[in-house]
Q: What sequence folds into this?
């Protein structure tokens, strides 16, 4: 079992949890949602950062959220003595959890039971009024995973290009700095943000290209090193992204591609 460390920056220091009595399982309530999006969303709530201790994506990757000995922010009324694990997906709607994700969930639950000497696993809705983790969540199977003490954990950090995307605010500020826009830097993408994004293509270089590379890498479209140079590899990543989004795959980042990247269409 590998645990991926996404190097998230927390707003303030996290306090160590005094007791650990149970594990609480959640779903993200979103079909496609990365650990970085979750972290950004929880920062937006005014929290220190991601509220879960672990986040498991559909591909079976286990991501570290808050260190598992700290107080989480995942189950109102139950944070003082629990570890929160969230699964990407909306299991009120999606009827089947991918096998890789389920397997990772069972391994992690078994590992945490052994690590903390506990056996209780709860649904979020056992603690707080909510439908989380969803009516189709395979709770019994995951919660029943046995602590066997033979799981080998390898923490993997900064493996290949696992990197958080730059914020909308960074992009807005850079477009202003380069004279493409004179917009308010409010970290909210809208039509003015879109209008301020210049067309970029192979041969371009600088911080806007750097932002693009970080964004595509975070979405799994591999630009390689975030070096700010729009080369062959970045072009190929742009084309793959465009294809995935149903756009003309020309490798040129114009308004339609920016609109997708900004989440506006
Ligand atoms: Zn929940």
A:
């Amino acid at each position: 079992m590998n645990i991926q460390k996404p190097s998230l920056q927390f707003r303030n220091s996290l306090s160590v949890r005094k007791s650990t009595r149970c594990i609480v399982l959640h779903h993200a309530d979103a079909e496609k949602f990365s650990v970085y999006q979750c972290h950004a969303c929880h920062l937006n709530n005014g929290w220190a950062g991601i509220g879960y201790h672990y986040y498991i994506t559909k591909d079976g990757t286990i991501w570290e959220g808050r260190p598992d000995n700290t107080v989480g922010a995942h189950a109102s009324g139950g944070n003082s003595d629990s570890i929160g694990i969230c699964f990407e997906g909306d299991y009120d709607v999606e009827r089947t959890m991918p096998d890789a994700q389920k397997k990772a969930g069972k391994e992690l639950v078994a590992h945490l039971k052994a690590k903390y000497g506990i056996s209780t696993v709860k649904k979020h809705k056992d603690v707080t009024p909510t439908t989380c983790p969803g009516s189709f969540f395979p709770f019994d199977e995951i919660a029943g995973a046995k602590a066997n003490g033979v799981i080998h954990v390898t923490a993997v950090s900064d493996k290949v290009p696992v990197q958080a995307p730059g914020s909308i605010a960074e992009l807005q500020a850079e477009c202003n700095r380069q004279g493409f826009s004179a917009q308010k830097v409010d970290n909210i993408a809208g039509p003015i943000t879109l209008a301020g994004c210049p067309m970029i293509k192979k041969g371009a270089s600088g911080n806007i290209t750097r932002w693009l590379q970080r964004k595509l890498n975070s979405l799994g479209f591999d630009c390689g090193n975030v070096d700010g140079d729009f080369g062959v590899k970045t072009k190929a990543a742009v084309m793959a992204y465009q294809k995935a989004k149903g756009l003309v795959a020309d490798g040129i980042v114009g308004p339609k591609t920016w609109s997708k990247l900004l989440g506006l269409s």
